[in-house]
Each structure stands twice: as structure tokens, then as C-alpha cells.
């Protein structure tokens, strides 16, 4: 955004960013009564998100276990299981993991853009 961008346009952009698909993530049956363990299903995702999200969630010291599976190769569904030590819920661990992964992607994108803008890189001719 530039300094010349009207505030109305900024508001519209932020509202568009805030749109969420309420059917994207589902809580699967079998959660623990205290919320420390739960399984989730994420629609239209695969190993790319599954492995990255599992890695980030496992970095949380409150998480005891996190694993994911793709139930069937022909279905675009990702199942993820999270178990915590009980200080936070599995839902909170998922939210924190998604936030942390998003922040990490933002940093990587910014660093990449900075390097491209600087132009100090070599290209390999075919």
C-alpha cells in the first residue's frame, strides 16, 4: 500500500483478508473431555501443509504429540492429531501453530522480496 491509498480501500483489503472458510477445518469425533487431545480434518490440503504444520506445532513445548495423515490419496483431506500436556487445549495449539506458520511464511516472503529487490544475485544460463 502506498501513502496515496484511500482508507476505504485499505478497509476493503483487510476485510477480504479476514474472510474465512468455515468448512475448511473440522473437529473430528474422539476429542478428550479436557480438550488436551483432538483430531482435526482440513479440506483441500495435502502433505505440503501437513508436514509444515506438524513441525511448527511440535516446536511448542506444551505439545506432547502431533501427527498428520492423508486418509486416501484420491481425497484432498488432511487429518491432524494434537495432544498437549494439558496446560493448553489442542484447539489452542492448532491456532498457535497456524499463526506461527503464517508468521514464518511472511518473514520468508519479505526476505525473498528484499533479495530480489536488491538485485545482487546470479542467474544460471541454460
From TrEMBL:
Record keyword Transcription present: yes
InterPro entries listed in its UniProt record: RBP11-like, RBP11-like_dimer, RNA_pol_Rpb11_13-16kDa_CS, RNAP_AC19, Rpo11-like
GO molecular function: DNA binding; DNA-directed RNA polymerase activity; protein dimerization activity
Keyword Transcription: yes
Main localization of the protein described in the UniProt heading: nucleus
Domain of life: Eukaryota
Keywords from the UniProt entry: DNA-directed RNA polymerase, Nucleus, Transcription
GO CC terms in record: nuclear DNA-directed RNA polymerase complex; RNA polymerase I complex; RNA polymerase III complex
Annotated GO biological process: transcription by RNA polymerase III; transcription elongation by RNA polymerase I
HAMAP family per UniProt: RNApol_arch_Rpo11 (MF_00261)
Family in the record: Belongs to the archaeal Rpo11/eukaryotic RPB11/RPC19 RNA polymerase subunit family.
Record's protein name: DNA-directed RNA polymerases I and III subunit RPAC2
Organism per entry: [Candida] railenensis
Amino acid at each position: 500500500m502506498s501513502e496515496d491509498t484511500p482508507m476505504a480501500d485499505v478497509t476493503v483489503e483487510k476485510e477480504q483478508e479476514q474472510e474465512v472458510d468455515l468448512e475448511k477445518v473440522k473437529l473430528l469425533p474422539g476429542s478428550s473431555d479436557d480438550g488436551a487431545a483432538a483430531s482435526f480434518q482440513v479440506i483441500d490440503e495435502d502433505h505440503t501443509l501437513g508436514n509444515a504444520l506438524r513441525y511448527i506445532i511440535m516446536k511448542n513445548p506444551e505439545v506432547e504429540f502431533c501427527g498428520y495423515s492423508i486418509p486416501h490419496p484420491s481425497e484432498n483431506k488432511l487429518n491432524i492429531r494434537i495432544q498437549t500436556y494439558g496446560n493448553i487445549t489442542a484447539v489452542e495449539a492448532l491456532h498457535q501453530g497456524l499463526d506461527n506458520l503464517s508468521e514464518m511464511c511472511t518473514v520468508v516472503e519479505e526476505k525473498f522480496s528484499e533479495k530480489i529487490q536488491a538485485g545482487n544475485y546470479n542467474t544460471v544460463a541454460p
